[in-house]
Amino acid sequence: MKLNISFIKLFTKFVIKFTKPKKWRTRKYTEYEYIKELVKFVKCGVYWRRYNRKINGRVLNNKHHEYIKLGIYKAFYKQLLEKYFKNNKTTKLKYQSIDTSFVPNKYGVKISKRNKYYKNKKGIKISTIVDKYGIPISIFLIGAHRNDSITVNDTIMRMLIKTDTKKYKNHNRFKQYFLADKGYDTKSVRDILKKKHYISIIAHNKRNTKNTNKIYKLTQIEKIKYKKRIIVENYFGWLKIYPKMSYFYEKTIYSFENLVYFISAILLFNREF
Q1: Closest CA to 131 of 83, 81, 171, 69
Q2: Does the 87-236 domain belong in CATH 3.40.50?
């Protein structure tokens, strides 16, 4: 993967403007050099101490945590989202899809729980909601032992933009659909989505219904719309092209979460800017 110099320059400008560093402060490396190394770091599957290039991994990790404390990664991604949604916002939000992706634990020590569906391995889950084109508008990290359906409300509450779902609920052209697989097929999830003014299209889970006569089947139109849910799987595929997302190496959940924001910003910039 080639380095995107335009992205590095844009992120550097944002960091300098966001932090407003004092002129008298001396540093061995510039912000541009730190960010360039961070981009290189997320493209390799090693933990911080093993990274030994221009900037030592421990020094780079300190800079990473400095950015986390200041909230730079999330703020930068939010700024990119606002630019992205300046045009055709209603079209992009017409179909919103949710899903989770399991990330096995490698060296992480916190929030790492066992998942019975992945050979009882320890790890975490990335719960995300994406728009029609696979751009994440909400990112939420949870323990791997938690059921997908439990995380819906928390993931919606972490939306980075205003979806104005209530405003368009009766508008045939711009009303918003919420797509989810059978793991989210519960009455509580459907009630939450109804209160949020979404039109939910969720695949039926046969295990939840003992009476086969009550099994709900999607209509032909719903089946066509439900196929658009694959875009959230595509997002996880794009995310895990970066080796740092394939395993949970970090010691804290916040460190990994901010790396998700950082890589999502790279993906969004490469696609739209």
Answers
A1: 81
A2: no
